[in-house]
Design brief:
Length: about 375
């Protein structure tokens, strides 16, 4: 009978430590290799003569290179989520050897949770999207530095209330020409650096637009852009971070992947639920919460199908040209908008009497969780549209 050989790998750039457990053996064999992937391949070929090797290693900066190399050779290898590895609270020892042994034993017992392996194209596109987000933060930090330099020297913008508009940028250009000495050099350097960052960000936006209008993303991007608060950048980020939405068994599992489910600490008859867990993919969670705030005020016109001959408004163009199946999903998940604000009291859902004067009942907002319920953004719409 072909026995199973469990291999735990502790992967670094310069070394790879492998702990090997054959069958039901308790004492593992530990081997330390260099970072050369050819030596790892030769090790697995030797193990394949004795049984069926099954390997795993923690997700880290090493990426998915080793997993793809072993998979191409026909060996089973999984990448494990580090945050979901069971650990002993009293354990104060950590070495490469102990980490590899722990992975091999937990992998054999079935206590490890693997992560989803994206394709090389999706991983590269995900890297471009995250780099664009990083450049956005660089631009924000540069603007704050420029505002701080001018404020420290008593130079305050008085021609308007909003910063970084065309008028404000013209004022900065005039100020750059009027100043002299080290202050002029500091301001000019910061403005040139900001211009460079914004140019690079614009180039990345153009590249992402090109990918969004090409296969296989064009259809899904158009479907997601039908939702309020979602345009090309958000749609591409969700598609690259989620990959295949069908790998989630339910909408709740998808929201748990984003960390948008309530935390819970219940025992016996006592139930206590807290804020969202914030576990999982932080990039997609941030964009989903930002998109949900666009649904804070209901606007039924964005999701209604336009009647023939009707004028095209700012929201009615979202679903034009999309498939009828997508429009049916949007119509099914569309909330009913109240007729007018002052009619809300007649609907009987916004005021409660609690032992005295009338009090307004709490209103669920996007991203807010109370008793396990999310706000007005229906999580089922996202799953149905991507499918």
């Amino acid at each position: 009978m072909n026995q199973c050989i469990w291999v735990g790998l502790d992967v670094h750039a310069d070394s790879i430590t492998a702990a090997i457990l054959s069958g039901d053996s308790q004492e593992p064999e530990v081997i330390t290799l260099s970072g050369d992937l050819m030596k790892v391949r030769r090790l697995f070929r030797r193990l394949a003569k004795k049984g069926t090797p099954r390997a795993c290693y923690e997700a880290s900066g090493a990426g998915f290179v080793l997993q793809r190399v072993l998979s191409q050779d026909g060996f089973h290898c999984e990448v494990i989520a580090p945050s979901l590895i069971p650990r002993k609270s009293g354990d104060r020892r950590k070495t490469d050897r102990l980490d590899a042994i722990m992975l091999a034993r937990l992998y054999r017992s079935g206590h490890l949770t693997p992560v989803h392996i994206p394709s090389e194209e999706q991983e590269a596109l995900r890297r471009l999207l995250r780099l664009r987000s990083t450049y956005q933060l660089y631009c924000k930090a540069g603007k704050h530095r420029i505002s701080g330099i001018l404020r420290n020297h008593g130079l305050v913008y008085r021609d308007g209330k909003t910063y970084w508009t065309k008028t404000h940028r013209r004022w900065l250009t005039r100020l750059r020409l009027e100043l002299e000495g080290p202050l002029q050099t500091a301001l000019a350097t910061e403005l040139e650096h900001l211009e460079y960052l914004e140019t690079q960000r614009g180039a990345m936006d153009a590249e992402l637009e090109r990918y969004a209008h090409a296969e296989p993303y064009r259809r899904d991007v158009e479907a997601l852009c039908c939702l309020r608060g979602i345009k090309t950048l958000t749609a591409m980020t969700l598609l690259c971070e989620i990959d295949d939405v069908r790998r989630f068994g339910s909408p709740t599992a998808l929201m748990a992947y984003f960390g948008l489910v309530p935390s819970e600490r219940s025992s016996g008859p006592r139930q206590r639920r807290g804020p969202i867990t914030k576990a999982g993919n932080i990039h997609a969670r941030r964009l989903l919460i930002e998109a949900a705030w666009n649904n804070h005020h209901r606007c039924a016109a964005d999701l209604e199908a336009p009647s023939p001959g009707a004028a095209t408004g700012s929201g009615r163009h979202r679903h034009e040209g999309t498939a009828s199946a997508v429009q049916e999903v949007l119509a099914a998940g569309r909330p009913e908008a109240p007729a007018r604000r002052h009619h809300r009291r007649r609907q009987g859902a916004l005021r409660l009497r609690v032992g005295g004067p009338e009090r307004r009942a709490p209103v669920l907002r996007p991203g807010h969780v109370r008793n396990g319920r999310e706000g007005s953004c229906d999580r089922r719409i996202l799953v149905s549209v991507v499918r």
